[in-house]
Specification:
There is one protein chain. The chain is of the alpha+beta class and 292 residues long. It folds into two domains: 242 residues, Beta Polymerase, domain 2, CATH 3.30.460; 46 residues, no CATH class. Helix content is 55%, strand content 13%. The chain has 15 helices and five strands. The chain has a five-stranded mixed sheet, sandwiched between helices. β3 and β4 form a beta hairpin. The termini are far apart. 39% of the residues are buried.
């Protein structure tokens, strides 16, 4: 098979994964029997050998939102502000999963996306652990394969000089980290590439060889819009999660403490009113640099 970007993505998505994560993906798909199309495993847990005590990250891809939900308001929320995020437990493991339709997953991995949250994640390694059929598998692979060209095409005008593949990756990740509320310390975006430079060099060179989408005519302005919209969307999604995600404020505190080295303790009143409680954390976290 030629070393094209699509072949690299196909091989990576089919790579090995912890059998417990694979079992969890199958159980997750079974929760939506009339709508599940694919389940992808991504994030820092992908690199861990022991998953006990960790929060796994999945994307559940569905045919459409009405087919996925019995409640109209959940379908409307997922359509208007994708994705919806829910907790999940299986086989002694815990996870959170985001729900996107096949159409939204393809759009949000492409240059047409109005925020960075999906393509910034799927330009990184992931595993396709479950698919309903071959068509669902191919659609998921195709969507993921567009994430790398999207990131690199937007990063290229912002990179210093011409920029080799690794420079473009580091530029792109640094910009995406400024387009969301992040709990990681400064420099985390660069460490993504440094952890596996060979992988990013191969994927970057393959994307450059096939040709990148044309960059926006005013890349700095596009990034300013992405950054403004991304941070507002982070707050809105947090508000939405207070309705869909039991224990969401405890997860927020856990993630911030884990990545930023803080010691945030959630008070009983914040659990009682998680939306208000989470929003009251934001000024303090910005001042302390725990999120940026």
């Amino acid at each position: 098979m030629p070393n094209t970007l699509l072949s690299l993505v196909t091989a990576e998505l089919a790579g090995p994964a912890d059998p417990r994560a694979a079992a969890m993906a199958g159980a997750l798909a079974a929760q939506y029997p009339g709508a599940s199309r694919a389940v992808l495993f991504y994030g820092s847990c992908l690199r861990e050998k022991n998953l006990d005590g960790l929060m796994l990250d999945f994307y559940l891809i569905v045919s459409d939102y009405r087919a996925a939900y019995g409640k109209r308001w959940l379908a409307a929320a997922n359509r208007l502000i994708p994705p919806n995020v829910f907790p999940f437990e299986h086989g002694g493991l815990i996870a959170k999963y985001a729900v996107l339709s096949e159409a939204d997953f393809a759009r949000l991995n492409s240059p047409a996306a109005d925020n960075v949250s999906v393509w910034a994640r799927f330009a990184q390694p992931a595993r396709l652990l479950w698919a309903a059929d071959d068509l669902a598998r191919q659609r998921a692979i195709s969507a993921v394969a567009s994430a790398t060209p999207t990131l690199l095409s937007l990063a290229r005008p912002m990179a210093e000089g011409e920029g080799d593949a690794l420079t473009l990756w580091k530029t792109g990740f640094a910009l995406t980290y400024n387009a969301e509320l992040r709990a990681e310390r400064k420099g985390r975006s660069l460490s993504i590439v440094d952890a596996d430079p060979d992988r990013y060099r191969r994927f970057g060179q393959a994307a450059l060889a096939q040709g990148l989408p044309p960059p926006p005519p005013d890349a700095p302005a596009r990034w300013r819009r992405l950054q403004r919209r991304g941070k507002w969307l982070s707050v809105i999604r947090l508000a939405k999660a207070s309705f869909t995600y039991a224990g969401g404020i405890d997860y927020l505190a856990w993630k911030i403490n884990r990545h930023a080295g803080t010691q945030i303790a959630i008070k009983p009143w914040q659990r009682r009113w998680p939306l208000v409680g989470a929003l009251t954390l934001l000024p303090r976290l910005f001042r302390g640099g725990a999120i940026r």
